[in-house]
Design goal:
2 domains; seven-stranded mixed beta sheet; alpha/beta; 18% strand; Rossmann fold
Length: 279
């Protein structure tokens, strides 16, 4: 067997092992829980950014029903189900992990679910108008696997179609995400561009650094802090502070930080494909 396929197989096995470990340790459940304020806030910001991108592309709830959508790296299908709510009919979700696909299929029969590797999608060429991928390519550490995966996205995307690419945008040397044993590699915008030569790009940066938002959550739930805030006349009279759940307070601060462009950690890249990949 050639060296190139060996690298792809090794990377696939590494990813399967990483996700199996995260499942055993309960990391997946915690990192995707909407009960965590910073995760809830990030998801809302992400939804808003995606809807704004779709609107710029001329897609609304009516037009969505006339587009074929694919999500690669769909996990348990949360975003595929959200796209169904937006009006997309019969979207397709693809994921490498068998347990993810089984759970997604059990939660919704209104979508197509396929277990497959991004480097070898069992799908016809030029079969989708929109491809969505969220935080998947940063989990691929092997450069060749990443390149092959991007080539597959180009293959199944129709000319004139778009890829909605959401992923980490931390600098590569950020110690919180790039360290020995790390399982993610945030891509720079230049790295994303090299994966899609000849395409047009637009970028939106969003999301608050979980380190900062987590600290805000912890601070807001301290009794002393609650007592001090309760003494502020504006907070007491205008916001009716005692009747607002404390869990909502960090959300307000995260919203303020987001409006100032502070600590943004995700890029939404809209990759427009106007010509055939082999043109």
């Amino acid at each position: 067997m050639s060296a190139e396929p060996d690298r792809l197989i090794q990377e696939r096995r590494r990813l399967e092992a990483v996700y199996a470990k995260r499942e055993r340790e309960g990391i997946e459940a915690v990192s995707n829980s909407l009960f965590t304020p910073e995760i809830f806030f990030l998801e809302q910001e992400m939804q808003r950014a995606i809807l704004q991108a779709l609107k710029r592309m001329g897609i609304n709830s009516i037009a969505a029903g006339q587009r074929d959508l694919l999500e690669v790296g769909c996990g348990r299908g949360r975003w595929v189900r959200w796209f169904l709510d937006c009006g997309f009919r019969r979207p397709t979700g693809v994921d490498l992990i068998e347990s993810h696909i089984k759970e997604a299929a059990s939660l919704s029969r209104a979508a197509n679910w396929i277990r497959a590797d991004v480097t070898c999608l069992p799908l016809p060429s030029e079969s989708f108008d929109i491809i969505f991928t969220s935080r998947m390519f940063s989990s691929i550490l092997d450069v060749e696997t990443r390149r092959q995966g991007a080539a597959e996205l180009r293959r199944v995307l129709r000319p004139g179609g778009s890829i909605l690419w959401v992923d980490l945008c931390h600098p590569a040397k950020d110690p919180r995400v790039e360290q020995p044993g790390s399982w993610v590699h945030p891509l720079t915008r230049d790295e994303v561009r090299t994966l899609f030569p000849g395409a047009e790009f637009s970028w939106t940066r969003f999301g608050i650094d979980p380190v900062w938002s987590g600290r805000l959550t912890s601070l807001a739930n301290r009794g002393l802090f609650r007592s001090l805030v309760h003494q502020v006349p504006f907070m007491k009279k205008r916001i009716a502070w005692p009747r607002i759940p404390m869990a909502r307070f960090p959300y307000f601060w995260m919203q303020a930080l987001a409006s100032l462009g502070f600590g943004r950690v995700y890029d939404l890249s809209v990759v427009r494909w106007h010509v055939r990949a082999d043109a």
